Amino acid sequence: MSDQGNRLGRLFSWDAAVVLVTVIVLVVASGAVENFGTSRNFTFLLLDLLPIALVALPMTFIIVTGEIDLSVASTLGLTSAVLGSLWDAGLSIETIIPLCIVLGAVLGALNGFFVTVLKLPSLAVTIGTLALYRGLAFVVLGDGAVADFPRAYTSWVTGTIGDGPVPNVLIPLVVAAVIFGVVLHATPIGRGVFAAGAGEQAARFAGIRTGRLKFWLYVVSGAVAGLAGVLWTLRYSSARADNGFGLELAVVAAVLLGGVSIFGGKGTLPGVLAGVVLLASLQNALRLQDVSNEALNIVTGVLLIVSVLLPNIVSSARTAVRRRRQVTPER
Amino acid sequence: MTATKEAPVTREPAVHSGRSWAANVFKARESGIVLALIVLVAFTATQNSRFLSGQSIRDILLGTAILAVLAVGQAVVMITRNIDLSVGSVLGLSAFAVGTLMKDNPGLPVLVAVLAGLAVGAVCGLLNGALVRFGQVPALVVTLGTLYAFRGVSYFWAGGQQINADKLPASFLDFGTASVLGVPWLVLIALLVLVAAGIVLRSYPAGRELYAMGSSPQAAELAGIRVGRNTIAAFLVSGALAGLAGVLFAARFGTVDAAAGTGYELNVVAAAVVGGVAVFGGSGSVWGAGLGALLLTVIGSALAVLDINQFWQQAIVGALILLAIGADRLVAVRVAKALKKRDSHV
What we know:
By secondary structure, chain A is mainly α. Chain A contains 13 helices and two strands. Chain B has a two-stranded antiparallel ribbon with strand order 1-2.
């Protein structure tokens, strides 16, 4: 239990450290990397981090409860494929977009059903649906692409507010981030999420219906992934079954980098958003330096490992120091 | 202190009788796969007789050989309640390394290629194992990270170049196609791996320790099992076998680029899970994993023969994973119920 308190205390400093590192990366990259500090690049950076940030919001909740959702990128891909084929079939985009978000919610509900009703491990379930949803995306659309979406929609998604560098789509993202942040940190739902992650049984004794809570988290996660699929499709004006491939790694990496414990129970949403910005700016800066997309995989992978290793190393170092301190006065 | 010491003692009889129970049920599980295989093969053969031609069977066996070698490694790791998602990337790295080695040194014997692939894989596995052991972090996160990191190394190294069959020495390519008494070398190697791993897991203390770790890491630790060392060993085995699979891959296809084996981890996990290896650790066998690999390969081949969109394959893999873990849960619940009933009689 004392270890728990120590970890909670450490968390705040981890958050602060991530924010600090993010600021350093932004400053250094602006100075050292050509074109990084331009307003045009700023727009692209924000557009690039949008899907990661969006999907990371519900993912934070899910990981805090001690579960995981690896199927988000496949949900995004399936939504994109369905969007494309419905558009091809002649439905209006105003009908398709809400349908896609509902589809995402249904896919999330299926995850939730397996995890909370059948009580299967979320890791195994979402590895299964990762394959299932991506496979269905290919079944729906094959390896072709659907383009020619209405200009008004695609240009809104890629456009900026006024003539400034801030993309339009940042508005819904900021609204969503505020809502998710308030819910997580200032409502009974949020407290339930932390309680479920800290100790499922204790949470249940305290009257929190953890199963129902988790089920709805998966529904929200799916719906948000569906929305991300819509925005992704409109941004690139291309519905493809392989859209968002591998995105789950970037999302999980950003969430863990932001100080959320993979064991559940700890984390903050501001920390996660800092993690998203850190990851996206690093990738953006490296890409401007002509580092290949594939080599960026190494950076993401290593960051993911470091972000789970470092807290443990720091904590065991602290424990060692404390032990030494405890021994000294006795002499 | 006393509470933690008591736990394994009170648990021991339950685990023991659970094992014999589970063994019976899993025997049934494996026969379930065999049944599914028979039905699938019979149905496909009636639709298209080409399915049972010598060439088709040969292709299925070769495909199964590579997947089965990977699945055996995965089973070893999963039995210890861990997972190795990096196997597809390790396969790719090893295949490219061996391809480059053989291209640059045409005179090298095939055995050197095999050893080189094993070594590349073992190094990757050792890294995974050390990160899991000393970092005290879930294998899922570590191997998700190394999945991308190892793949990144392949891309970095290959830089878009591809090794083609015409650049590889004939002896190496022959190894991919040659057979002994009609059985391809690749299949023989896979069988050898399967039998060796099966015997070690079943009959040697080292193998039994892995099951004990998977059933309850704390209890295993208290029982004097060196959990940390065994964890590293399990990842080492999985990595080395993924490296071996890379050699088989390079020899069979003759064409290797940085993307070789992308997405294999899904099929491998599916093969192990479908074959009855529990994601919660502690149960399952490499035989099951091998059968799972065979089933997945036959499904892929059947889809092609039946003229069904190949894109269905990935969806089926996903559905099979869900089905298998669902069945696993069902078995676990039933075993628990049966044990409770038996305890109440005593």
